[in-house]
Amino acid sequence: MQRRSALKSMAVAVGGLMALPGWASGWNRTTVQSARFLSAPQDALLADVAETILPATDTPGAKALNVHQFIQKMITDCFEPTAQETLKKGLAAVEEKARATYGKSFAEGDATQRTTLLSGLNASEDPTLKSFYSTVKNLTIRGYMTSEYVMTNLTKFEFAPGRYHGCVPVTASSKTLTEKK
Amino acid sequence: MANFAIDAVKATTYDAIVIGSGISGGWAAKELTGKGLRTLVLERGRDVRHITDYPTTMMQPWEFEHRGQLPLEIRKANPIISKCYAFYEGSAQFFVKDAEHPYVQEKPFDWIRGYQVGGKSLMWARQTQRWSQFDFEGPARDGFAVDWPIRYEDLAPWYSYVEKFAGISGNKDGLPQLPDGEFLPPHEWNCVEKYFSQKMKDHYKGSRPIIMGRAAHITKPQPIHLQQGRAQCQHRTICERGCPFGGYFSSNSSTLPWAAKTGKLTLRPHSVVHSIIYDEKKGKATGVRVIDANTKEMMEFYARVIFVNAAALNTNLILLNSTSNRFPNGLGNDSGVLGKYVAFHNYRAGISGDYDGFLDMTTDGKRPNSPYIPRFRNVFKQETDFLRGYAAGFNAGRSSYSDQSGIGADLKTSLLNPKMGGWHVGSHMMGETIPKESNYVALDAGQKDPFGIPQLKISVAYDDNDDKMVKDYLEQMTEMFTVAGFKNIRTRDDKRNPGLDIHEMGGVRMGKDPKTSMLNKWNQLHAVKNVFVTDGASMTSTSTQNPSLTYMAFAARAVDYAVKEMNKKNL
Ligand SMILES: Cc1cc2nc3c(=O)[nH]c(=O)nc-3n(C[C@H](O)[C@H](O)[C@H](O)COP(=O)(O)OP(=O)(O)OC[C@H]3O[C@@H](n4cnc5c(N)ncnc54)[C@H](O)[C@@H]3O)c2cc1C
Ligand code: SF4
Question: CA B459, B463, B512: angle at the middle one, nearest 5?
């Protein structure tokens, strides 16, 4: 809907010269489509891992923003096939370590236990676990920072700023985010 | 029956045919229809209507399935086009996929194409620098290629003519090596760019001017732009998705709808031109053979005058494939130079660095353009051990960063409170390559494309002159960056293949002498007077400036001449 109203205001901006294109009215595609290679429990675990990396605070965390589905989508479509194996192995290791260390599943662990466990993966000697952690973390950050919620509510994203000023003083609100194409 | 045949011929007969609907073809179509000629524009790709057929133009970053990145499968299936910086999830629909339109790389050549109505005018970067007297006098002076049959003065009024309609922003800088044009207000500099420009002016005593790039953006709409249905550029910097405002010049937003308004335009997408028909009795071309891309059916269309604007290398292909008893080696190819002396721009080298100053200043908004360093080597006299020179892009910007080492709530806080980084500066070279006979394209009779047309074989490579130029660019820019006090200077020569600059030119060059050139000073085939070539194929040499504005000016000029000749019954 936001898209439609943006188009409408644009049509006004160009002086009614523009007819609304056909595809604008039929716009209801969900951006992240269903996951493809993880089982439901694996998917839930990935969501908990992402949530541990970027948890809900006074604003939503990774899980609420469906970042785990984005991760799966990216690993399925944009990464080498080996990344799927790495992801599955990493998830299995996370679960195993949780049980071995705390005697309960990762999901049941508290925030500190989960954080300690994931940080441990980062420090791990095992290249698969290291790669699992860095990939999931990078994709979590990317999925979160490019989510609609974050871009429209928490960061200064402008679609059509209509201006360029080359030399303005730095102010508290100068936070700029590079354009995500 | 006889009548039936005559009617059929009538129905497929126009006053003029334009092959290709990209930057140059769009201009040919606008001018021809504007002068009252019933014009058929043949385009091999699909139709792309302004706004309606820009499916990603209003998509927000989060609406892309892969947030802009293209799936691995697509990248792997398209190793060539994937090298183009402008090919991403939002623009992929406008680029030719590698497998669909094969060609033969006798030497590595990354051929970047857009096969649709509008051609590459949809995805281009919109830099529109005029060529100067030095560019048109160059070959005569240095002895490479052949002398251009025209001079800057011949083209100047036509530059003005197309600039006013297309809408070009820029500053009047008064430079002989980069003539001023009809400009809308220029884009703004940022502090570091302005500083660099001033510093270079002081240090090099004005011999290395740095200017704001001239770009095909409507910074302030004039009545002529509003009449086209175009509006002020909104600074979205996602132009290669197609601009719903018509903020930048494309055939789709500008020339083609204008041509359509005359009622004289017939646009036929899905029409792959196979060859031009030459009538030996009449001693001229009578029409073209077309393969319908959907039905694969071969058909013919006829006209009094034909403009070939299929983009440089495809224009070569069409002429090479247009054989007859009179022209067994390609239409108009009495000299044997057709397909030869192909040249391009060299974008191999780049340089970057950081700047510590202006930390209290930043930028606001986005700018679809950047400053430009006009050629300063060998302009007024030969001063290096290589021929010709290079222009360069330059830009500065400030980025933000955040500490991403943590995890949990701290990481989140850090991400949402980015710190401002320092200024970064960068430049890339645009070198002129020398047209050589050994850089050529030809037909590979053994390999056919999906339409049964011989594939184009491309044999184009860098030479020693290019290597020397790369070296000089890196040395000179390092010196300039050092003078400016830039830190962490990093240079690169990415050794990219020719072609990736997307400024391929030549093969059907202009010249005074029919023995050594294909076209006369009116872009008219010496040997077939009713056929005109006004795209990059016609360029005798390549200049260092971006070429498309020059194709526009040539197209408008050639149509003006052609129609006058038709009225005098000379065509
Ligand atoms: C990412 C990118 C950035 C660029 N940046 C700049 C820039 O900043 N400045 C600049 O000056 N230039 C730039 N260019 C180059 C510019 O786009 C081209 O120079 C320009 O489009 C050439 O115009 P043209 O009419 O010759 O060809 P095109 O615009 O490519 O149009 C040719 C048309 O002919 C059609 N065609 C081809 N063969 C046939 C056939 N057999 N039958 C029928 N139709 C056919 C094609 O489908 C196409 O639509 C850039 C290009 C790209 C892709
Ligand atoms: S920068 Fe201007 S021309 Fe480019 S998409 Fe935005 S509004 Fe259109």
Answer: 70
